[in-house]
Amino acid sequence: MNLKINKILVSFFFSLFLVLFFSSLNAQSNLLSYKSEYEISLGDSDLVRLPGKTYVDKASGYLLIDWINNCDNSWVSNQRMMTRFINSHGVGTVSEINYSINENTDGKDMDFLLEVKEDAELVNRVYGEANLKDKLVVKFPKTDKKDINFPGEVVFPHKFLEEIISNLFSDKRMITKKVYEGTIPEKFFNISVFITDKIIKESDVKLSEKINNKFKQIRMSYYQDNDQTPIFEQTVNLNDQGLANYFKYDYTEYSLVLKLKKVSLVSLDCD
């Protein structure tokens, strides 16, 4: 159960946080470099449980994110997500995801490294180099894994999420794209976004005066291949600087909630 959960967890939290990646310098000037921490808990559910089936009873943990503008050459992100699951039989599992990415600001090249651990045992490690021209080509150096080609309409997350940010406070409500972000190397996601009218202000965490305390709620659905049913859905409170203060991930049988606990801005000397 948990390896499948981990792959999906990496995909949705990583895809969302790539709101930092913009292709224009004007857009980049509004984005923040920061370090943030989120607390993970199990969300409410009205699911009717069937006898004899195993369910998630408890979940706790944290998500740490570094988003750094590498002097306008690229955006660098390091993320660590640790989640403790306890099922309805009282059996616990600790899942850890480490994900790093370096994406050029022109949106043409992206390197990524993913590590997944179950109870401290490494179960998956993938390093990839993706290049987007007429088509998307993904290479896996120092392995026997074959290159993967995707059609040209598949884009990196920054192109997709640039559109989300630019329309966050506009009249546009629906955005749909095919997006590749590497967490499931052989797949891309069909992602649909619904931008709601709901605006939230952060009241539990003290924010820097440089952070816009105006978060717009969006709803994201993630599909694979030609499936008509999403593998998960996500609710996010997002501001126009690329910072989210709340996530809710909805699965078929449970949900996870991530709330911002602390955030600090980062400055680099690029001289």
How would you characterize the overall build of this protein?
- It contains three helices and 15 strands.
- It is mostly beta strands and 271 residues long.
- The chain has one domain (2-265).
- The protein is globular.
- The relative contact order is 0.20.
Q: SSE layout and pairings?
A:
Layout (H helix, E strand, L loop, with lengths): L1 H16 L7 H4 L5 E9 L13 E14 L4 E14 L4 E13 L4 E10 L2 E12 L3 E4 L8 E3 L3 E2 L1 H10 L7 E6 L9 E12 L14 E10 L7 E7 L5 E7 L4 E11 L6
Parallel strand pairs: 9-10
Antiparallel strand pairs: 1-2, 1-15, 2-3, 3-4, 4-5, 5-6, 6-7, 7-8, 10-11, 11-12, 12-13, 13-14, 14-15
Tag the structure with descriptive keywords.
3 helices; globular; 15 strands; 15-stranded mixed beta sheet; mainly beta; 271 residues
Number of helices: 3
Percentage beta strand: over 45%
Q: H/E element string?
A: HHEEEEEEEEEHEEEEEE
Number of strands: 15
- Rg is 18 Å
What's the rounded overall pLDDT mean?
83
Going across the biggest sheet, name each strand in turn.
8-7-6-5-4-3-2-1-15-14-13-12-11-10-9
The total tally of domains equals: 1
Which stretches are poorly predicted, pLDDT < 50 over at least 5 residues?
Answer: 15-29
Which descriptor suits the 3D outline?
globular
Helix content percent band:
10-25%
Q: Can you summarize the main beta sheet? A: 15 strands, mixed
Q: Cα distance, first to last residue?
A: 48 Å
Structural class: mainly beta
Summary of the model, kept short:
Helix content is 11%, strand content 49%. By secondary structure, it is mainly beta.
